[in-house]
Amino acid sequence: MKMRAIPLLALLLAAPLYALQSEAPPPPPIPEPEPLPPKVQDPDEQVLPEVNIRREEDRDVEEYSINGVVYMIRIVPDVGPAYYLIDTTGDGNFDSQMQHDQLAPVRPAHWKIREW
After folding, report:
1. pTM of the prediction?
2. Is residue 48 within 8 Å of 41, Cβ to Cβ?
3. Whole-number Å distance between alpha carbons of 77 and 83
4. What are the domain boundaries of the chain?
5. How far, in Å, CA of 92 to CA of 34, rounded?
6. More confident residue, 62 or 44
7. What are phi and psi of 63, to 5 degrees?
8. CATH class of 49-103
9. How far is CA 111 from CA 68, 103, 105, 115, in A?
């Protein structure tokens, strides 16, 4: 029995050596990386908005503009929350955006827990 096991053991040990000696196919070529997209703006060259603040009767009005074009107006009344008028289309018509509307279109659910 031992005599049969020796050739079998030698064959099992030689098989990995034979596999290492056979030539493996060459690996596929590495593709060239895609070029990076160009930078939009350097941080030093960013266009900062110009802000004009004026006081009206019962509120402060802040006008935000870039290159002389007003794109947003923030109105801070003496009483109540601040609100914004934003030109979303660039046509000069301002849409109202209240602070509580910033969550739109998400509306939190309300449940009645107790009633008196």
Report:
1. 0.46
2. no
3. 9
4. 49-103
5. 41
6. 62
7. -105, 125
8. mainly beta
9. 48, 19, 19, 11
